[in-house]
Hints:
The protein has 520 residues and is an alpha/beta fold. The chain folds into 3 domains: 3-196, Rossmann fold, CATH 3.40.50.880; 205-393, Rossmann fold; 412-507, GMP Synthetase, Chain A, domain 3, CATH 3.30.300.10. Helices cover 32% and strands 24% of the residues. It has helices spanning 20-29, 87-95, 185-196, 205-220, 233-246, 264-275, 286-292, 299-321, 333-338, 340-343, 359-363, 376-385, 390-393, 413-432, 485-498; strands spanning 9-14, 34-38, 51-56, 82-85, 99-101, 107-115, 131-138, 141-144, 149-155, 162-165, 170-173, 224-228, 250-256, 280-284, 324-328, 366-368, 441-455, 458-472, 478-480, 502-507. It is globular and about 80 Å long. The chain starts with 8 loop residues before the first strand and ends in a 13-residue tail after the last strand. Xanthosine-5'-monophosphate (XMP) is lined by residues 351, 353-354, 397, 399-401, 441, 475, 512, 516-518.
Amino acid sequence: MSLDRNLNKILIIDFGSQFTQLIARRVRELGVFSEIVSHKKIKLKDINNSVKGIVLSGGPLNVYQNNKFSFDKKILRFDIPVLGICFGHQILSKLNGGRVKQSKHREFGLAKVYKKNNSLLTSNFFRNKKSKQVWMSHSDQVSKLPKTFKVVASSTNSKFAIVESKIKKYYGVQFHPEVTHTENGKKLISNFVFLICKIKKNWSSKDQKNQLITDVRKQVGTNKVICALSGGVDSSVVAQLLNKAIGKKLYCIFVNTGLLRKNEEVQVVQTFKKRLKMNLIYVNAEKEFLKKLKNVSDPEKKRKIIGNLFIKIFDRYAKKIKNVKFLAQGTLYPDLIESKSVTGSQTSKIKSHHNVGGLPQKMNLQLVEPLKFLFKDEVRKLGLELNLSREIISRHPFPGPGLAIRMPGIITNEKIKILKEADYYFIKALKDHAIYHKIWQAYAALLPVKTVGVMGDNRTYEYLCLLRAITSEDGMTADFYEFKKSFMQSISNKIVNSIRGINRVVYDVTSKPPSTIELE
Length: 520
Ligand code: XMP
């Protein structure tokens, strides 16, 4: 799996660490292309001239579980610098004649590393101090260093916290320089990339824009392309990129499921059709969706019904356009990495995600996925390069099944109306208080319970509104956002006083895991 363009890169061999994507992002933030390949998929031929450095990631395995990981030692024979992180550090030491000690105790969290010797890897890392704070997450550790290696820094628990080979460009760190808790960790990565691998900057959103436009033109020629536009960041950037590349050969289909945020359909048409002059087909399918969802309360059934109907409607309109050859999708790099095809890993299914993935086989369409090598923050920067407004680019994610999964129980017109209002007031308040951008995602949900309240001396018996606001890096894990009491008070008052149908507001204080971000 690799880009057609032969960009010089740092290749990250993934051994299953939850931070592997972060390593790739840190390298790219430095303006250098990086790619991730699973240890199960890496082949010797992947180590071609464009690979200027190799990072061996961390992972849950131990170096003695030979049957659980495969790593061709021949990869180390090339004259390419290697940086081992945590588990990667341990295999690098073991393969060079060192020893790794299995330990029952896990060192998890902050630790201090103390400088012992100079190294290119730690240039300006310690910044005239003797120690630095780093973030550890391991149980095993290197207990005997290869004869050809030397210690660069030690921690209280790991004698060999930073090491390097005296004869080859091999470096190992027991901690995680890619996580923000490691003080100055970015400097270590930057030293490896620029001082040791000597790679030049080749990755910026401006270069990306021009290159991706050329790539799309080359791929689709004069053929017609359709694109499902949701108004979210990814599909908006894909649509605008194709709009710039092929103009009116692009047909965007926007389906109003009736489960969108308040006024969403008006804003999407306004932005994409009127302002950006795209070929936009607006489909109002509110009634169709509501009919199919009548009396359905099972979350998975809701998701399936919505996904299938979406595909059906999309297919119907695509046929009307005639002679369509391509379908453009906003697949991102994390989707690719997390899919079985790249990592070989299998995760248990928690929710059936709604997307248009079923379409290509059914309609015999080829896929155009121009963002498939980009991370979300890179897509946002690209969007700005493409003249999309900051408002579109920095929107919170919104799920395909929309308000249906924020309304446990059956879906009715009345509930949708109430929920749209509650969500509108909540998001507006976040924007008015300038906290919208501090939050990764926020929404209101309507719970299928009624509770008793008192308003103007009268008894009320109405719905319960749940507010959820989380901070996150990528949606895989999340923590709830801590609002000030005054904000919670004012939003609760606003919702209860302005919306008929809600008389109580609660705030969701669970993180993910064990919860998920959406309710269903
Ligand atoms: P969960 O609820 O799984 O959500 O913690 C993680 C992120 O994914 C979004 N989400 C979806 N996005 N189609 C989408 O495009 C879906 O079916 C879907 N379900 C959840 C969710 O909003 C959050 O950002």
